[in-house]
Amino acid sequence: MQQQVQNIEFNASLNPLKQVEVTTNVHKFGGSSLANAACILRVVEIIKDNAKLNDFIVVSANGKTTDQLFELLESADNDQLFATQLKQLKDDQAALINELLDNNQAAQLLQQLTADIEFINTESANSFKQSRNDVLAFGELWSAKLLAAVLSQNVCKANAIDARKVLILDSGNNFQLNEQLSKTNITAEKLANQLNIFTGFIASDEQGNTQTLGRNGSDYSATIAAHLLNAQNVTLWTDVNGVYSADPRIVNTARKLFRLENSVAKELGRLGNPVLHANTLNPLTTHNIHLNVASSFAPQDSGTEIGAFGEIAKSEISVTHNNELIKIDSTEFDVKTLEQINTRFQPIYQCQNNTCIVISQQFADLALHYLQAQNITFSTLKVSLIAVVGYQVANRGEIKARFKRALKHTDIAQFVGSSNGHSLLAFFEHESSVELINKVHSQVTKDSRNIGLVIAGLGNIGKRFLEMLPQQLNRLPALENVHLVGLATSKKALINTDGIEVNQALELFQQDSLAYDNQLLLEWLSQHPYDELVLVDITPSEQFSNLYQAFFEQGIHVISANKCAGSSSTKAYNQLLNTQQLTGSQWLVNTTVGAGLPVNYAINDLLNSGDEINEVAGIFSGTLSWLFSNFDGSLAFSQLLQNALEQGFTEPDPRDDLSGLDVQRKLLILARLAGFELELTDIECQNLVPNSLIGLSTDEFLAQANLLDEYFADKLHEAKQQNGCLRYVARFSKTDSGYKAKVGLEILANDHAFANLTPCDNIFLLTTNWYQDNPLIIQGPGAGRDVTAGGLHSDLVNLCRELAVKTKEVEIKGIN
Ligand SMILES: NC(=O)C1=CN([C@@H]2O[C@H](COP(=O)(O)OP(=O)(O)OC[C@H]3O[C@@H](n4cnc5c(N)ncnc54)[C@H](OP(=O)(O)O)[C@@H]3O)[C@@H](O)[C@H]2O)C=CC1
Ligand SMILES: N[C@@H](CC=O)C(=O)O
């Protein structure tokens, strides 16, 4: 039965493939990504979402087809086995065609398949003496034709290209690519305004003989095609979702490396990394082409990007191992022989005195034949390798020392730095154990993750937070891997994935920030290349706090000084908590109440200890505390207000303090933390801003603030008459029917606990089951630049400590 491609939108305006761009991208799909009809349909969806017309799609043979073809080559002398295997191959291919194509389309491919199978059958008579490579080529040819037909039927026109008509290898020059001829060919073969489906793995020589590009040759085909096409991006869609800091099947603390420096990626390939292959990166070095490794099983995940990056990516360290190596020792290597060995067998290591080479076992037979033919006497030894790979890692003393520490008490045969400086190599005369590989990984990477830090809001508090950042980063091991990567104000943002120099952050922001909108910010955040991203919201903006839902959905952690989200509607607040729990995002809000005072932590600790909060009361506004402590009638109230504003205690608009809104929000945040469900409007609130000052801009309000003076002078007089003082008090208490909550101006006795605070201090009285007759009191400065910025730093350190011990399970579909 023909399978359907789901959700294909034929409406031109919605078809993502309609946007034709001048640049070409190359997408390569490996065999396991194209293993069966369901996989191919998934690939079609990926192409719809990620490709555009004129892009090149490079394909491997479907599933295990190449293995089946190899088996046929081997069983040519066994008629019965050969016939069974050939029938199976034909049936498998025919099944794919019938499942995916309508009758007309299927008929053409089935006819071709029959002819190809007949060719294989005929060639078996002379044991494929001349046609081994022609037979192997069928895997990719069938795969390309099938995908082109499925795309043409369901998405857009697609043109299958036989790479043998394009990629010409020079048999007189070690089968190097004839670049000029291949470039001319690719231009001639590609068709405009469609997708070009290109066979991986195969090429031809000048005589037209089929040649293959070796193990994992399709990746190489993709990067060669990208080079010839001057493409911008190559994506290797495979069955793993990126390159890891070690093989995740062996090291379960391995981290995905989101960005890999070109030279480091090349070194990993050279040393036998299972995802990146030795040749793959070679064609990319001359152009600035980005290579991505992504999973076709989880296309929404960001994979690994390979390119030219700055310091953060360059600091990545990984561990690779290879148990399938052979060391060849000889005193007879001459320059010419070594040159040949280098070109043909990709040695992993060559001794400085030219008396030994280490090569992969896959080249062993060929290499040994070659040396015998040269009459060179040699001896061989199986060896294994554990390598620490990173940008110029051989020159990084601390990594070298850690690696050596991990190797202590092992019978290591040799320890050297690679000649390019990008790896440290430890060779052993036996297989490397899983324990040792884990130990090395843990020692050299410290299992640390890169944490990106974005700061939104660079005002009164944001600037102070930023000023304190360099010293914090230098001082605290917990912040070792924190990188400032984004700064934003209401209209401009500076994002630099390579990191923003913290000591010059404000200057860089002035120079380089660009206008942005939330959509752009979210787009960048959705693709950030860090293990964790922390956003510190030091804005007063409700509109900005509305983005938290999207942040949490993307697993981004938020530290808020902004009180809007914490005091939003019950529905919105609960949705945030649910999403955050679902995605593992952390949300730290310590400074939203009491600035740096640990009142939020105290409530959490009490609840964790099994206590219950019965009452919360106190002075929650630093501004109002400062104003009413200092207001004795000698200065007008409006003058004191101006003073509080200048000291950085007030909200950006001081009416948010005077109206009681700021205190109302804080009481709501604490009540919610204590486990109660209520809305802001459930808290009775006394507004001290007269109607005449409500509708004005902040500047207009400040210009007319003297209109407040008479009201507050009267209130002070009233308090004095009662031998008391004015205080703006928040009160929340549990009742039999639920709770009672209000914030407002009170006249308190002069010896009341709330009446004798240092100006600007907050006081929080927590009455709980454990602290009933003698409530728990937390008191201290509750507003201001230093304490608030300090509180935010405290949240950052606590968060980073938690993230350091967070374990992320690696999902592996297998490594092809
Ligand atoms: N003062 C204190 O003691 C305490 C303050 N807080 C909270 O800290 C926050 C910041 O206060 P403060 O520094 O005094 O405020 P400021 O007005 O001095 O600075 C606010 C900053 O936020 C930016 N901003 C405003 N809207 C947005 C937006 N939509 N997107 C991105 N950036 C935006 C502003 O950018 P632009 O310049 O472009 O407008 C500015 O850089 C407030 O939420 C406050 O409640 C919390 C505890 C204590
Ligand atoms: N404006 C606020 C600042 C802290 O939240 C206050 O005065 O308390």
UniProtKB/TrEMBL annotation:
Pathway: Amino-acid biosynthesis; L-lysine biosynthesis via DAP pathway; (S)-tetrahydrodipicolinate from L-aspartate: step 1/4; Amino-acid biosynthesis; L-threonine biosynthesis; L-threonine from L-aspartate: step 3/5; Amino-acid biosynthesis; L-threonine biosynthesis; L-threonine from L-aspartate: step 1/5; Amino-acid biosynthesis; L-methionine biosynthesis via de novo pathway; L-homoserine from L-aspartate: step 3/3. Its cofactor is a metal cation. Residues 24-294 form the Aspartate/glutamate/uridylate kinase domain. InterPro entries: AceGlu_kinase-like_sf, AK-HD, Asp/Glu/Uridylate_kinase, Asp/hSer_DH_NAD-bd, Asp_kinase, AsparK_Bifunc_asparK/hSer_DH, Aspartate_kinase_CS, Bifunc_Aspkin/hSer_DH. Keywords: Amino-acid biosynthesis, ATP-binding, Kinase, Metal-binding, Methionine biosynthesis, Multifunctional enzyme, NAD, NADP, Nucleotide-binding, Oxidoreductase, Sodium, Threonine biosynthesis, Transferase. PROSITE patterns: ASPARTOKINASE, HOMOSER_DHGENASE. Its EC number is 2.7.2.4, 1.1.1.3. Residues 457-589 form the Aspartate/homoserine dehydrogenase NAD-binding domain. Bifunctional aspartate kinase and homoserine dehydrogenase that catalyzes the first and the third steps toward the synthesis of lysine, methionine and threonine from aspartate. In the C-terminal section; belongs to the homoserine dehydrogenase family. Homotetramer. This is Bifunctional aspartokinase/homoserine dehydrogenase. It comes from Thalassotalea nanhaiensis. The lineage of its organism: Bacteria, Pseudomonadati, Pseudomonadota, Gammaproteobacteria, Alteromonadales. The gene is metL.
